Amino acid sequence: MIHEVDEGLRRLLAESGLEASGVEVVFDAPTRDWAARRSAPTVCVFLYDIREDAVRRGTGAGEVYDEDGHLVARRSPPRWFQLTYLVTAWASRPQDEHRLLSQVLGALVAHDTLPAGLLTGSLAELGLTVGLETAGTGMDAPAAADVWSALGGELKASLGVRVRAPLAGVTRAAAPPVTEGLVVRSAAAREGEETSPGRRLRYTEATDPGRDGFTGPRERPPAPARRRRRGDRQA
User: Fold this and answer.
1) CA 97 to CA 157: how far, in whole Å?
2) Where are the transmembrane segments (predicted)?
3) What's the rounded Cα separation, in Å, for the pair 75 and 144?
């Protein structure tokens, strides 16, 4: 899911004309060594924080059916995560960096969600809304100054971007549909006696006239033994 969010952001920024103007869009960590090797105008989209949105965690499981309407699997609900990015612009002059950053800001704030047409993989299959928040207040994530300190670089202008995206649930295959009826047998009355072959319950055509819900004709139970009267005793 994370790489699919990356691809959605890259496509969104590409539509703003960055790549057409020769600006690279990368997802590297903007460390001091990375900055020293950079040679072309670049927009860096660095993912630095991933947290689950526990409020949106669902329960239960959904059912998956095949073309014939048979249950083939059960799928747990998706779990939602917040992905926080640090977006920076890199160029030879601060004015050029600010121009790039302004272009990125305009492209991102125009959308509250990642457009469905830009989603790929599991995000596209789920068909759920992927939220997008740019330069918002109250982001529950490390401050930009702490991120720059951890990267070993110098603080510079940046945008905070948070994406709320679903991670597809786990799919577990279901048992195949029942195709044969249950066999019912009676236990032997005494040890050593053979059991009856039994009767098999039917799951189709159980409501047909003249049928009793079994695969074969219903056996008539044996008549109860006649009790002898005193007058029937032999002398």
Assistant:
1) 9
2) none
3) 38
User: Side chain identity at 225, as an amino acid letter?
Assistant: A
What SS3 state is found at 104? helix
Question: Residue with structure tokens 């195949």?
Answer: 176
CATH fold of 2-173 reads STM4215-like (3.30.2000)
59 DSSP β-pair partners: none
Rounded CA gap, 47 and 78, in Å? 21
Can you give the length of the chain in residues?
235
Domain ranges of the chain: 2-173, 178-218
pLDDT tens-digit series, residues 156-170 = 999 999 999 999 877
Selection from 54, 119, 115, 114 nearest residue 80 by Cα: 54
Cα–Cα distances (Å) from 27 to 5, 43, 105, in that order, read 11, 9, 17
Rounded CA-CA distance 169/7 in Å is: 21
146's enclosing H/E stretch is: helix 144-151
User: What DSSP character marks residue 207?
Assistant: T
3-class DSSP state of 109 = helix
Q: Which residue has the tokens 């993912």?
A: 47
The DSSP bridge partners found for residue 65 are: 71
User: Taking the mean position of all CA atoms in its chain, how far away is CA 152?
Assistant: 36
Query: Could you tell me which residues are beta bridge partners of residue 132?
Result: 163
